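Ligand-bound model needed. hydroxy diiron-OXO moiety.
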Amino acid sequence: MISQEMEKAFNSQINAELYSEYLYLSMKAYVSRLNLPGFINWFDVQVQEEHAHAMGMFDYVISRGGKIELLAIDKPETDWESPLEVFEHVLKHEQLVTSLINKLMDVAESSHDRAALSFLDWYLKEQVEEEKNVGNVLATLRLIKNDANALLLLDKDLATRVFNPPIIA
Ligand code: OFO
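Prediction:
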């Protein structure tokens, strides 16, 4: 059985993951306006990943006999100046999510909930991957500056990203 404190912390993290899904959906809409199919694909995969992150926690809370309480999802931003600004926002957002996962692990630690800690280990590793991947795209975008041809090459590269449903255990 999950403690009430853990249950509350998981419900709030589910909300953060669903907000991430919403934010990336909004970013997908923005890059769609720029007509960049590779960027659209990248955000499409990101949206699916965030949904999977939320559902992984959703299923976990239920499996531990906890109660799911879905909270209101904030409205994400809708406009950015450029693909560079979008990815700067993505990195900042992922860094925030990493800090939220760390806080969730703090709650698990103080509740002596080793099962939750072990479950959350996957999320921590995922955050390291997320920050690394986003950081790579961001570094390329910083090099590209206003070079439209280089941007189109990056777009081709981002078109190859594929969603692999994660096995969260
Ligand atoms: Fe769920 O990892 Fe991004 O936010």
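The domain at 4-69+79-158 is CATH 1.20.1260.10 (Ferritin).
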